[in-house]
Amino acid sequence: MTVVHHPEDARILHRQIRALVDAGHEVTYAAPYTARGVVPRSFVTGVDLPRAAERRRLSAVRAARKLFKSMRGRVDLALIHDPELLFAVAGVRRRPPVVWDVHEDTPATLSLKPWLPAFLRPPTRFLARLLETTAERRLHLLLAETAYAGRFKQQHLVVPNETWVPDTVSRPGDDRIVYLGWLSEARGVKEAVEVARLLQPQRVAVELIGYADPQSRPLLNEAVAQGLLEWRDFMPNDEALKRLDGALAGLSLLRDEPNYRHSMPTKIIEYMAHGIPVITTPSPRAVELVERYRCGLVVPWEDPQAVARAVLQLRDNPFERHGTGGRGYAAARAHHHWPNSARRFVAQLEAWAGVKS
C-alpha cells in the first residue's frame, strides 16, 4: 500500500511485488492509479487510492485507513511504503502483521520539501523521529539502506535498492548521456540542463527520464522547447531501463543534502547493470561504489563544466569508456543483482505472515 509513490515504482512493483508473485503469492496492490494516470498490472489485484501530494495528504491517509480496516481479515500481511501510512494502520485492532518498508531518512528529507514552511520543519522532524520510534515498537521494519540502521534500536533486515541485471549488455556508445530518476533542484536538474547546453555544440545528446517536481517542470519545458535536451517524464521502470542501453554515460548529480549523504543512489546501480559509465557528484556512497569498482568518474558539486569535461573524456577515449562500463556491469552482476536480495525479502515476509511459498 502506498499513497505517495507512483504505482509503477521500481522498488515496490518491479522488485518486491514481482518477487512475491514469482514465489507464488497473491498480491493486492493499493496505490494512486487514477491520480497517476495508470492502470494496475495484470499480476496484481489493484485498488485505487487518492494520492498524497505536498500539503494534501489527510484524505489519502483516511482512504488508506478505511481500506486497511476493510481488508484486515483477508490478507496475511500488509506492507506499507510511506510514513503517512503509519497513521492509517495505527490503533487498528485485529490486524494482520504490518511491515513498514523504510525507503529514506524521513526526518532529513523534510529539509528538501519546498511546500513545508521553514518554521515547521524542526517540529515536523521531531514528529518523524517519534513516529519511527513508535513504529519500531509496534510494526516490523525493512530498511532500504544499511545507513538507516543507526536510527533504530533493533536490527532489521536490509533490502537494498538493487536491480535486475541483464544476462548481456551492449557496449556504451559515444553520442548520448542519460539521467534516470526523480528530477528536482536537489537532484541536480539545473546542472543537467546546463550540461546539455554545454554539450550541444559537441553533438552529445542529453536524455532525462523521470518525474519532475512542480518547481522543475518550467525549466525542463523551456529546455525542451529550446532543443537542448529530451525529457521523457515518467516511464515505467522496465521501459526506462531499456533507454540506458548503448548510452555514453549515466548521470547522478545529487547535491550535498543530508538525505543523500548516506544513501545509495539506485540510478548508479542501474547504470552499472546496463554497462554504461557513471558520472557522479561526490556523495559518499556514490564515491565508494565508483572507486571500488572503477566504473565511472567523480565530479565536484554543482559544476556542470566538470560534468561536460568528464563526458567528453569518455567520448574521446573508447578504451576507457568500454572498460569503465564493463567493470561496472561485472560488479553489478556479481554483487547487486536483485534476485539475490529477493530471496531474503520473500523469506522474511513469509516468516512474519506465518505462510510458505
Q: What does this 3D model show about the protein?
A:
The protein has 357 residues and is of the alpha/beta class. It has helices spanning 10-22, 33-36, 58-71, 85-89, 106-109, 121-138, 189-199, 217-225, 237-242, 266-273, 284-293, 304-315, 318-335, 338-353, and strands spanning 28-31, 45-48, 78-80, 98-102, 140-143, 157-158, 176-180, 205-209, 230-231, 249-252, 278-280, 296-298. Helix 2 (33-36) links the parallel strand 1 (28-31) and strand 2. The chain has 2 domains: 10-162 and 338-353, Rossmann fold, CATH 3.40.50.2000; 176-335, 3-Layer(aba) Sandwich (Rossmann fold). The radius of gyration is 21 Å and the shape is globular. The longest helix is centred in the middle third of the chain and has 18 residues, at 121-138. It is built from 14 helices and 12 strands. The strands form 3 sheets. It has a 6-stranded parallel sheet with strand order 9-8-7-10-11-12, with helices on both faces. Helices cover 41% and strands 12% of the residues. 38% of the residues are buried.
